[in-house]
Amino acid sequence: MSGNENCGKMKWLNLIYMDLNKKNLLARAQIKKIANSFHADLTSNLKNPKFKKDFYDNLLKYRIANEIINFRKKRGVTQEELAKK
What we know:
The protein has 85 residues and is mostly helical. It has 2 domains: 45 residues; 38 residues. Helices cover 89% and strands 0% of the residues. The longest helix has 43 residues. It starts with a helix and ends with a helix. The model has no long low-confidence stretch (mean pLDDT 84).
């Protein structure tokens, strides 16, 4: 392979890398925008006592379910096997 061919391939790789990096930055900006919007909505909604109670009740259920899932994955136990125990 000649030096010119190698240089051409490097240019293409660099262009692809720059394009992927640009797309990644755009995706990060979109995620940040969505997260900020979610946080603002949640902060506003948590001022409602009923919403706040329901939110934290469900958050506890989610955390418990997440702990069970993590336990199963670490131990290599299926949901069916866990249900039998």
